[in-house]
Fold each of these.
Amino acid sequence: ITSTDWLKTNGLKAKKLNLYQVLAPNAFSPVEEFVPILQKTVSSTLHEKAMMQFEWHDGTVKNIHVDLPILYKYQKLLAKMVRIYEKRINWLSVASRRIWGSVCEKRVVILVDISVPNSTCIIHIQHSLRLLLEEQMLNKDCFNIIAFGSHIVPWQLELVPSQPESLQKAWRWVLRLQCSGSRNFMSALRRAVEVDFKEKDKHKSQGIYLLTTGIPDQETHTISAYVAEACRGFDLQLHVCLFSVMEDADSCGIIPARYATPTETVIAFKEIVQAANGRFHWFGEAGIFESDDITVIVSEMEKAKNYSQKCAFLVESLKPRSGDQPANPFTAEAGATVVVTKEKRRPQKLSSPKPTALSLARMV
């Protein structure tokens, strides 16, 4: 499952932990009405010890009743969700997911760049494919692998069922791959779309995953236009896994069909991915540089941090107004108020009246 889909059930809004969802029951719009008996317009006022003015998500200002116990509980829930998000980021950053991200679809075609510039990192590419086959492909319905340099080299003529035997055969084929030519990505993409996914309209959950180290031979706008047309209206996405190698691409003495700086390459693939409604994943030997799956989780964590800060602001702003409040109201025990209330209601013992001179004379 993609992080975007994961957040549909685990995001702050899905968990009803959006700050404005929490404050809504105690939020009131300022009221301004004409009072006939006074013959003037009167605005609502704030209770100085219990309410604050707070900017709402739509830019309006609301009068907020600050309920300290609710806000304290809310902040603890936010901290818990942040820990869950950190756990998912760690999960996305290890093993095959560090290279491929989360491979979610049930029908998958893997496009592998074996152009000559990759001669120095073919072992890394093979290892990446091995991890993918071992960890993420067994639960798929079917798959295929297409290697490409100047020409395409498909493993099978069409998609095959994902079974232990077929995965083992695919791995033995991967071990025989040799680098040649440039990056004719368009031919490999066409092969996947028009052969492996020729019945894309009859199936759901279909994905193409590209593992590459550089810019394709074809112009970015040409690829984007093709993939946008191929994916439009179908449950088919193209995802890019860009591997940045330490060695210079020209170290083999091969002049690529197109040259692009790392930044230009990233921009180009982001444009292609956007056209295909896919995800972009950029990594190297040092780790992950950028990942759409991780970025959306980090964004949710930042949102939680922002909500927590606004929550703390509300609490801190209320303190100067309530001098009789404890210094830290969140540390008070929940039962303290109940105990105090019971003690106040207990009947007090009446003291005897003081004797007067007359009463003392009668006692003699």
Note: Confidence is low (pLDDT under 50) at residues 324-351.
Amino acid sequence: MVQPGGDAGGMKRILLAGILALCGTGAVPAAVPGGEVIVAQSSADSLPVKSARAVCPSGKNVVGAGGSVGGFLPGLIMTEVVPDATLTSVTVVGREDEAGTTAQWSFYAYAVCADPLPGLELVTRTSSFSSGPVRSLKILCPAPKRALSAGGRIDGAGGEVLLTNLRVHPFSAPLPNSAYLGATEDDTGASGNWGLHGYAICADPPPGYQVVTYQSPVGSPPSQPLQGPACPTGKRVLGVGGQVLSVNGQVSLRHLIPQSLAVSVFAMEDHDGTTINWSMGGQAICAD
């Protein structure tokens, strides 16, 4: 629901509820003092590459990042979910894969914003830039800080590399101390070199810091939506993470959406699908 006068290509501060986070722009109460989720939408057209930037209100910092690309249309991938160096905004880039689409499409950038947290900092790391079917990157927070959220960017490859991991690490650890980024070439391979640039949003653990995880059933459906996991009663979302558990070059993360009390994670097969079984996992990074 967009407020009267809302602009589908802009950024607004509104109330979100459940799956409406997939299709609206705005803000919703979140964890820690001053917490809210800012949502920005790209243009809705048939251009092959688009970006959107969600900006925190003055005086607040990014503590979590997410993105959502193309609804349920095939032929689209998310290649960038990046917090800026000052932790005041999140930029998301979506593009058509090499199969592409003639449909109009758009996507969303999500920034979980809050009053400055003790020890908040952004840690970055870059992989090698070369050819290869699979690449991953772990970004370690300095001790004793913990990871609040992950960010990442695929450099090069022109839509031939799929995002498969963007999460805090280890996946099921109660107090993860790093972020994890993973990607794989599509099933026809990439024609050029490519690399990864990863980001960890780190801070002293806020009160009630906890990571809740969930894994979908193993199977071969065209897509696997994941409504959840949810934060325990009394806690709210700081960040969101997701992973695809099958590296066959035909499944990618499409939605990583932080909501107030839970997260939405969604992965989807490419245009011609796969018979290989796969599953996905989701994370809600929570705090009081």
Note: The two ends are 27 Å apart (CA to CA).
Amino acid sequence: MANPNSPSVSVFPGFVYDSEKKRYFAVTNGDSTFNSQYSNNAVQADLRREKFSTAKKEKEDAESRDKALQLNKHLHMLPRYPENLLTSLKLGAVQMSYFQWMLSFLKSCSKQIMRDVSLWPYPADSMNKPCEFIYFKPSTRSVGTAKLPLKKNGLLHRYTTNTPSVLLSGFKTPSYDLIFCGGHQQFQCVNHYGELTELDQDFLTMSRDPYNFIDKHGDKQSEKINTFETFAFSETHTYFFVSDAILKIETAALSNSVKDLSTKRLAIGLGNDLPRDAIADGDLVSFIHSSSLKIVKQHGGMLTLYLKEAPIYHFRMKSTSHSDIMIFAIVTRSSVEIREFKLSSQAWNGIIISLPIENHNKARPICFLHKGVLVVEEDSGHFLVIDLERRHSARCTSRAFASQKLAGEHRVLFDENSAIYLSSSSDTWLFR
């Protein structure tokens, strides 16, 4: 066949030359919509490339005009080339993200109720098994450990509590296995032998002000602590939050069933507002106080982050890509604020990301952090899902959660099959 690039060869009417395949293709035109398109693969491929290039340019132009969208582009876009991401996961180049799994789970899960059982998690530092939790049965006041998923004899009784209100936690190491139970006027600690260590209001009041306290039958008046049910635990220390200080006790000492415990008083001057939502994994203690987030520094002193709106919850996790970075997520009634905290310098680091919460109408929305993915309830059954490490976010609707009614505090737990347990003070709902 003659070379079409030769000046002596004229272009054949009705044909087009494909330089890659080095041959001619017929071009047909007709009256119908179908026949009006070119019938050969080479021409159609050129049209598709041109159409894609035009659409891509129009999209980039639109995004460049919207500065807010351009700034937060990485928050609402999924990773490009997911097949390459999967290969990187297999090679260990990047950590697995549960972002897409969580979206799929919320959309498709169903629920069932387990009555008369309340579940509580262990702190992050605890060495308990991933499927092991603490339970409380309101009907019998029984407290012990539970293994999920719950089976016929899945509750292991430890002791019976007499506290009027219950706030549970625990800690497990190779040396001791403790369950903590707090109420308005007392704090109980039970080791794996069932031996009880009980701290009453007088103990904490004297620890707070030992020079102005005789005893509860004495004549000298001392300002009592009204409540101390806000506490947090780490592997090394237990922290009791009172009105103007944090009392620090060695966690291991609580396992000896003795009452002559030594305390260290960290003066912080909190005033009348009680601290709440305390986290103490490792030696870094953080908690919410009024309209601020406070961090007790590892070497003394306190760092206060003042917010425009009072926080409801705060979550934190160590970065999987930077061991010196702790990622904080602060949930308010109108937004989720994501910040980075540098552990070596004990200071905030990097840029601040704020994502709006839509149609929020609950005092205590369902919020939880699971394997780097933060889930925040915006309205009944409507959720904002955020990958804190990669900064991706998406919204989804869950029919199973839409009918869920919770009036007070709640906890969210996971078993080894990744089922979700939503637990209140009296009942637990299983989502799977």
Note: DSSP finds six helices and 30 strands in the chain.
Amino acid sequence: MQRTKLTIQQRAELEAVMRKRHGNAALVRRARCVVLWSDGERRVHIRTKLACNDAFVSKWTAAFEAQGLAGLVSVHPGRAPKIPTAKLEARVLNRTLKHKP
């Protein structure tokens, strides 16, 4: 993979992410990976510093090159919200009508 130089603005954004005290630790790790990669660090050193593997370095540097900072945010599919069923609603209503709090 060819290394691309970060612009001043990109570097500033990544460093801001890394400086946050109450940020997402995974996002900070990914940002640090991209900065180290663009600074010319070898994969061996990045793996050692971040305790990661080659796939991690490849995945997040490619994601950053394709989408910028937004590419470093991991999107988990999640699941649909659980909608209470009519049976459960009937049980709750019955319980509240029969028992006082």
Note: The two ends are 65 Å apart (CA to CA).
